[in-house]
Amino acid sequence: MNASLLLPPNEETKANTAKSENERKKFALGKGYSLMDWIRFSKETIDLAGNKGILRPITLNELSKHNMEDDCWMAIFGKVYNVTPYMKYHPGGVDELMKGAGKNATDLFVQVHQWVNIQSMLEKCLLGPLDTSQKVFNSPKLEPKSKLNLEVKKNLLEIPVLDSYQSNQSCNIVLYTKCKNLSTDCLIIDKSKDPDHSNFLILFLYIPSGIYKYYLEIPAAVKENYDVKFSKEGKIEIVLSKLEQIHWWQMCPKLKFSAEKIEESNAGINFRECILKSRDFITHDTSFYRFELPSTSKMHVPIGYHVFLRFQTSKELTKPYTVVNESLLEEKNQNENEICFLIKHYDQGEFTSKLKKLPVGSKIEISNYNGSFNCDILLNCSNLYLICAGSGFTPMARILTKSLRMANIEMIKLIFFNKTEKDIIYKAELEKTSQDFPKLEVINILSDEKSDWKGKRGQINNELLGELIEKCSKNPLFCICGPNKFAEKAKELICKNGHKKEEIFVF
Q: Do the Cβ atoms of 268 and 370 come closer than 8 Å?
């Protein structure tokens, strides 16, 4: 058999071996990669296996995943070794050693090197005992026995691949999502808050197939300004700059990590501590809040999405709020270190009453984002209707900012319901914007105004919407946000006016 593991056979054995096409090929080792070089290297190198000396059982399934030249494990006599560092020292060459990659290579080893003291040769590469109680999950020879097994297999295989490599200057983490034209808001980066695992980095990947969480151990300190690159083909590369420019032997050769698919929560996931930087009154009962994210966090919130806020001292008191831009009606990307909200205060509201009194410089906890609005639906829209009541304007603000500069959108109507004139958020700014962009029409409708109001009055009803919405609108899209009863009524009336449910999005 054309196989050679760990050491070449001695001359006597070689002479007794039948000379055929299967005879082992000779391979010239590079300078510095002799047997003595390997012995010296393995003695001088700490944690050659990359497991900090902690041995653990390795399943056949896990073993099978490490079958690449730069990530090669193999099992011999019931023990699993990380032979990646040994690759260039193998006298039979890399190709021969790769025949046992990701496998139980005991039979292969016995046929060629049964006299070699494997335990001594690869002592520093030992990962742990081989656990044969579980079958190799992705073996083509195994057929799933039930529908449940099929589902488990799909869940395991759909987690996007994570790879890593390093230079003396940086450690690079690469995610292969297979999703083209990803935006910067699909990835959230955080440092672990657990003091016992402060060197761990947490990644959340949001792609059409789901939300994926990666938990990575970073061997040494890195700079806080992570550099993230997105390719059109779906590759995401995170560059961590090392504080000390040295090689991390602990990687050997990759970062240790765990990965799982997670579900969204109605109360938020992965909260981080943020600092209140400023609070500015916009109306008599609405304020613009600006919070600073931790320097070790990177999070861009998609348009129309919300996050959950909670107090450190009252974690059960949690409220969702839609994220707005720092400059509400200007086209400006969210500062990656800041997150802003437009929040209405209620006299009887437990959360907002406490928030209103929170001193600038205080901390509050903010979750990952949540939502389902997809900006791509704006690409197929010609006539855009934004129908909102009170603070329901908040998701409309970023949609409005984006759609004003989209050539395919020919007409925008902001139909804004409030009680009184003083309740209208950004009234002057909206009026100026409608002057600067002729395709925008702002219609303010008041229900309780007692002054000399010349605009429309009333609550949402069929007569009002029938007057403002064209029945034969070209490629219409209706975005609705407000109290539940308001949103339900608006959706019902729009459908009564001849429009399809598929043309309506309710926040």
A: yes
All residues at 6 or more sequence positions from 16 whose CB lies less than 8 Å from its CB, including other chains: none
Q: Which phi and psi (to 5°) does residue 259 adopt? A: -145, 145
- Rounded to 5°, the CA angle 409-415-418 comes to 150
476-481, strands of its sheet edge to edge? 456-457, 440-446, 411-418, 383-389, 476-481, 504-506
Q: Which of 386, 392, 388, 381 shows the shortest CA–CA distance to 324?
A: 392
pLDDT at 348: 85
Q: Pinpoint the alpha helices (H) of 301-413.
A: 350-356, 394-403
Q: Judge if the upstream peptide bond of residue 219 is cis by omega within 30 degrees of 0.
A: no
Give dist(CA 265, CA 262) in Å, integer.
9
pLDDT tens column, 392-421 = 999 999 999 999 999 999 999 999 999 999
> CB burial class (10 A; 0-12, 13-18, 19+) of residue 169?
exposed
Half-sphere exposure of 263 (CA within 13 A, CB side): 3
Least Cα distance to 390 among 501, 484, 323, 326 occurs for 484
443: nearest Cα among 486, 474, 411: 411
SS (H, E, C) 60-86: HHHHHCCEECCEEEEEECCEEEECHHH
What is the total residue count of the chain?
A: 507
Q: What is the pLDDT of residues 473-497, one digit of tens each?
A: 789 999 999 999 999 999 999 998 8
Q: Please check whether residue 208 is in contact with residue 225, taking contact to mean a CB–CB distance below 8 angstroms.
A: no
SS3 readout for 127-150: EEEEECCCCCCCCCCCCCCCHHHH
> Is the Cα dihedral 136, 141, 146, 149 positive or negative?
positive
**328 and 350 Cβ atoms separated by less than 8 Å:** no
Region for residue 282 given its phi and psi (left: phi exceeds 0; alpha: psi -120 to 50; beta: otherwise): alpha
Average pLDDT over residues 275-283: 94
Burial of 145 (0-12, 13-18, 19+ CB in 10 A): exposed
Provide mean pLDDT across the span 26-40: 76
